[in-house]
What does this fold into?
Amino acid sequence: VECKTMEEIRRHQLERLAAGFRMFSHFGYDEGIAGHITLRDPEYPHYFWVNPFGMHFGQICISDLILVDREGNIVQGEDKMLNTAAFAIHSRLHEARSDVNAAAHSHSMYGKSFSTLGRLLEPITQDSCAFYDDHVLFDDYTGVVLETDEGDRIAEALGDKRAAILKNHGLICCGNSVKEVSDQIRKVELRLKMHIIRKIDQ
It folds into this structure.
């Protein structure tokens, strides 16, 4: 899609962000109020867009999205509630990685299940090899993330990789676009599903 103005660029990207939430809902990656996807604003790089607290992913439209600054102040969407965990994690990822324009975090079924094992995805199939040496295990779980210091620890553990398995928690992926991170979450989830099925069959 060719966008000629900043407003058109932003609109196009926010459409993809809203679609990302619909995709999460379709595949069952939403669980209550858990999970979030963020997008760095194309004009103001220290601001990012995020879903509001408590809204079902399958119902999110562009008008529902919140624009937040690096301190957690709501710049646009003041009538909505900010998810504290989303800000604590994603603000630190965007701050630490200038190359990260989008990040997605899910509490998906196989992502959560596999995360309890405290191990990395093994390169046992051709598809799994795509994430070899490009994901990490974050095993410093302290419960619901409410403080940015844990977001800092997740960002530090992630380093320059594109995905992390958060022990006893779920998955997080980062990249250049919402489409990229949504695809990554989907791909990691399927590889973890295959790992779990393989273990059951052994």
Observations:
- The radius of gyration is 16 Å.
